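Might I ask for a little of your time on a matter of protein folding? What I wish to show you is a protein chain and, alongside it, a tokenised description of its three-dimensional fold. I should value your view on which stretches of the chain appear to form regular backbone elements. You will find the record immediately after this paragraph:
***
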Amino acid sequence: MKKELFAIPVFIDKIDFEIFKFPEEKFEPTWDSNTPTTFGKNHPLTEESFGHLCEVITRNLSGGNVLGANPRIGNMWRNKYTENDYQDVHIHARCQWSFIIYETMQSQTSFLNPSIKDIQNQIGNTCGEFPLDYKPDLGPGDIIIFPSFLFHSVNRGAGGTSISGNIYMEY
């Protein structure tokens, strides 16, 4: 009998851009990569946009039995990538869940296995039962919701825009 231990849930769903409208803001180079972003700016959503985003997030986290008390959406920002832009490996500290909405791009995100150093040390990188990373095949209109402690990066690629954000709750 095979049993999976210590699985890390992520949730993939769709955002309806007819309902969800994210405000336009001026992009500024940010982080070590100088990726153009609206990080740190206030992005007030319409009630309809906010309600749609909350419904998608709640549906997934409650269906996955991981919705904690007092859930709330915090910072959100838009990233604009060219073929040479990237994001270094990072986490979203001091929040419980994060999300990426692929607005006009294919996913260039890589999520790293939290046990990557142990797997490489003990097994190497050729055993499919122990993947070192996960690169979702997602595109415009897709959202991925993931635990904020999960290391991830954005690889260089074709470019486009994504919207990222953080979710706070109590467990």
Observations:
- DSSP finds two helices and eleven strands in the chain.
- The chain has one domain: 11-19+28-170.
- The mean pLDDT is 96.
